[in-house]
Amino acid sequence: MFKFFKRMKTVVESELNAALDKAEDPVKMLDQYMRDMAEDIREVETSVAKQIANEKMLQKKYTEAQSMVDKRGEQAIKAVEAGNDDLARRALEDKKAHQQKADTLKEAYVSAQNDSMMLRTKLDEMKNEYQEMELKKDSLKARAESAKTRTKMNRTLSNIGNGTSKQGFERMEEKVLQYEAEAETSEDLRQSNRSLDDEFAALEKNDVDDELAALKKKLGK
What we know:
With about 220 residues, the protein is an all-alpha fold. It contains four helices and no strands.
């Protein structure tokens, strides 16, 4: 399991580099890799828990077997003191059987205890590696987002500075100048038309005054 985890870590790094080469989304892939590794850790934690439970079970059985060894030894002494050699002999035989069982269980318990310590150590190493990769993932995600932003900005600036954009800008500037010229021309025409109307109005006013003066003269006013 632990060798598999280390192999997976290597595979993750190699596949990530390949993904970057293929222009795949490294942010999504990093998240997926971390989820896979977290799942592996949970599986190992389950295995460690089972191993610890097995260790405790063996410890309990060994303790019980050793207790029977001590009990049969005390009973053999009592039987000898009571002059019952047959009972003492049977107690010693049972003591011997429990002693063999206790020795076997002790050996299994010690082995399980060592395995549990080793598994705990390896699990801690896996968790530390996961934390390191978690930090590295955050750094890589930040770098990826920064690179995307820079690329987008550079493309935008490139579009602004290229010939097509410049020509379009100049064309719009010419249109604005044309609109302004047309506005000034229409204003000049309006002013010109107003002047003609004023002149004709003045002319008509003069004709009325002349007619009024003639009328007064005729009437002797």
